[in-house]
Amino acid sequence: MHKIDAEAIENIAVGAALLGTGGGGDPYIGKMMALSAVNEYGPVRVISPEEVDEEAVYTPAASMGAPSIMIEKMPKGDEFVRVFQKLEKYLGKEIKGVFPIEAGGVNSMIPIIVAAQLNLPLVDCDGMGRAFPELQMVTFHLNGISSTPMAITDEKGNIGIIETIDNVWAERLARTATVEMGARALISNCPCTGKEVKQASIHNVVSLSENIGRIIRSKELETQEKFNQLLEITGGFDLFNGKITDVQRNIEAGFNRGKMVIEGLKNDTGEQVEIYFQNENLIALKNGEPIALTPDLICLVDQETLAPVTTESLKYGKRVRVLSLPSASQWRTNIGIETVGPRYFGYEYEYTPVEDLVKNGACV
Amino acid sequence: MHKIDAEAIENIAVGAALLGTGGGGDPYIGKMMALSAVNEYGPVRVISPEEVDEEAVYTPAASMGAPSIMIEKMPKGDEFVRVFQKLEKYLGKEIKGVFPIEAGGVNSMIPIIVAAQLNLPLVDCDGMGRAFPELQMVTFHLNGISSTPMAITDEKGNIGIIETIDNVWAERLARTATVEMGARALISNCPCTGKEVKQASIHNVVSLSENIGRIIRSKELETQEKFNQLLEITGGFDLFNGKITDVQRNIEAGFNRGKMVIEGLKNDTGEQVEIYFQNENLIALKNGEPIALTPDLICLVDQETLAPVTTESLKYGKRVRVLSLPSASQWRTNIGIETVGPRYFGYEYEYTPVEDLVKNGACV
């Protein structure tokens, strides 16, 4: 993939929504904005993390806050570029390219909008290989790279620059600003040299998203064929197949938090899966036992179309398949587990890789 | 007054605490920091607002948040200059002088610290002529001057730059940052040209503070003589004389909020005054009827020493005199009353100047 055109955007939006594990925002809104940007400014050039200029500066562009809000509080359109350029001016250095901070319906699209509007290359990488709810949950953090200076803005035009003593403080201050700005804000953070991008990012996530999206959107393949190919290219596992019977959620401190219950379609088996989420799906339990744990990806797709299901579109009666993809190896280190493992989110489970849980019978 | 030396600091700390109407922080801590700065760097040069360079930039340096916190969370010492210089760098223009944003124990002292450490002149003015609890409550706001760009920092070293679409948004975003930073932060905001300082500031507040402090601290004068001189130089009124019998307060959203009851010393008269405060004293009622209303100043002083009483040092049994000083004429306009009048703070009283209330019998 050398250019992102309209067709690539359609694929990336779907694929990134899957990797977004329920978070990362509604793919529809993000996609429409990116399509409109590419339509106006032309396709976006993609470069591999291997091709970056090691001395130059690259930054993510992203949305922060509860994705639910985006449905009601539409972006104005100029905020993506405004926040990016504000950071550039503050750094006093030209930013040579943009990349997604995470995979997700909205956050895979915003860098495309910025790249198109500013005629910058998009680097084929991200900082998570999935989506996570907090700023410090990036592989850059694991590599000692600061989240700040960062810029933050809202659709009204308010702007903040934040520089903190550590990445947890960046999360705290940006989160309270996001909440005050109306529970959603645009950010550009974590300025990296090309060398840091090469070393610390997760490579080829944009391409992977596009490939996933192409499979899900295929008109030639049958549902089960698509599903098998998905598992194949992601190394994922088929965990459960059922109907959502309960969803509890609330928006607190700028997050969508909650829990869903999925019951097996053959009710007589009595099997059920509970999934806990904070923007993203974090923990899946089957009959009370863990079958997938953060940082491994827990993804829901529509049973028929395999369209990724975001946490804000969960509803009673929806039939879904639950799959889990192994997380990037950087997350499976001690500092990775400390940063995004089950205990960080308040769940008293020891992280066990999904492939080990599957060996012990977690799979369908 | 051409220089602020140790003696002037002692006087200003006391006088500004009186004008601080209960808010503006504990005068002791602020004073100690200023004395130490002047001791290390030498006396601070004071210039009149008439002497500023009309084209140059001048900014306040201040503390934001609940003053109570300052007693437990001591400043580190470098944050006053750090935030000021951060704003200067962000503006890309040399700041030629500093001034207090308000009168108050702490906020009259911080500009002295910055002026001493950076060898800058202190402009003899402020933005309130008293203290008020919110950022947009400055005469600069009434004159259409923006609170931002502003810089904010904490004692840990976290820094924010805020640029907003209006001054109420500046207050909202800076307030949430202040709360997250631990309910107290240092700011430098409202950058003004010299011309704006001349036109929009309240002139000679530093000198007035010093004169008030000199009277209160005088060793020659008797208490009643001091009191009479105070009323004379401020145009103030003697409203009540009594004993604090109840104090209700809580820290919420970064403010000290509460209410006190003062009973007349001759209990048989049954007279009592209630004063409502939000950092600063805002409303005084005598037997349920208003005797002084924001923006006019409601000041408490110790019955014997005439030392100003801050809201954080209120306690049962303390004997106090309540006086009220007419606010600056800029506050008594329609936009002034809209910004800081009783209704803004949620009290359903029509603003009436204290001199009119006194005519109707509010005085002792």
UniProtKB/TrEMBL annotation, chains A, B:
InterPro entries: S-Me-THD-like_C, S-Me-THD_C_sf, S-Me-THD_N, S-Me-THD_N_sf. Residues 8-163 form the S-Me-THD N-terminal domain. Pfam families: S-Me-THD_C (PF20906), S-Me-THD_N (PF06032). It comes from the Bacteria. Residues 166-354 form the S-Me-THD-like C-terminal domain. This is Uncharacterized DUF917 family protein.
